[in-house]
């Protein structure tokens, strides 16, 4: 009978130690919270002919982390004003005239050529924005002039 009492008295501290260890290491329950996505850096844009844009997708975000991919790119148009607008003005006041989505986009760092010959807008300004998954728009590209197609 004495051996049975010693075995049960050893089991209680071991059980309490195990429960304490499990309580300390459990932490918060539920799915892990994904970190918020940072905006992409501005894409590289250059004119590739009269009505074509060569857009180089960014490889990093504004926090200097590597981009896994870009969900879409948007071409924004702003009518001609008295002065050349900043990229932020085109982004905030411009209208989307063309967007290209995955899977038609290359990997980050790749170049896609956009044909804007169907765009019938008067003279103005255009800029390009890369959009990440979750509708997180990146920084706008440099502003380029858009000439009247009738010219």
Explain what the structure shows.
This protein is 21% helix and 28% strand. With 151 residues, the protein is of the alpha+beta class. It has a domain at 44-146: Sandwich (Immunoglobulin-like). The strands form two sheets. Strands 3, 4, 6, 7 and 8 form a five-stranded antiparallel β-sheet that branches. A three-stranded antiparallel β-sheet has the order 1-2-5, with no helix packed on it. A hairpin with a 4-residue loop joins strand 1 (44-47) and strand 2.
Shape: elongated
The CATH architecture classification of the domain at 44-146 is Sandwich
How do the helices and strands follow one another from N- to C-terminus? HEEEHEEEEE
Distance between the termini: 106 Å
Percent helix range: 10-25%
pLDDT < 50 runs, ≥5 residues:
none
The overall average pLDDT, rounded, is 84
Structural class: alpha+beta
User: Helix count?
Assistant: 2
Specify Rg, calculated over alpha carbons. Answer: 28 Å
What is the CATH third-level topology name of the domain at 44-146? Immunoglobulin-like
Strand content: 25-35%
CATH class of the domain at 44-146: Mainly Beta
How many E-type strands?
A: 8
Assembly state? single chain
Task: Let me know the largest β-sheet.
Answer: 5 strands, antiparallel
List the helices and strands and how they pair.
Layout: H1 2-26, E1 44-47, E2 52-56, E3 72-79, H2 87-93, E4 95-101, E5 111-115, E6 124-132, E7 136-137, E8 144-146
Antiparallel strand pairs: 1-2, 2-5, 3-4, 3-6, 6-7, 6-8
């Amino acid at each position: 009978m004495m051996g049975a009492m010693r075995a049960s008295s050893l089991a209680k501290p071991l059980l309490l130690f195990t429960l304490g260890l499990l309580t300390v290491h459990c932490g918060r329950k539920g799915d892990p919270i994904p970190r918020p996505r940072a905006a992409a850096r501005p894409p590289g844009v250059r004119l590739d002919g009269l009505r074509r844009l060569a857009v180089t997708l960014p490889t990093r975000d504004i926090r200097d982390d590597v981009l896994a991919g870009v969900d879409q790119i948007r071409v924004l148009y702003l009518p001609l004003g008295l002065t050349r607008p900043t990229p932020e003005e085109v982004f905030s006041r411009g209208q989307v005239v063309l967007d290209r989505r995955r899977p038609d986009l290359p990997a980050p760092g790749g170049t896609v050529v956009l044909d804007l010959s169907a765009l019938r807008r008067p003279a103005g300004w255009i800029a390009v924005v890369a959009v990440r998954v979750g509708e997180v728009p990146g920084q706008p590209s440099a502003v380029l002039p858009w000439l009247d197609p009738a010219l």
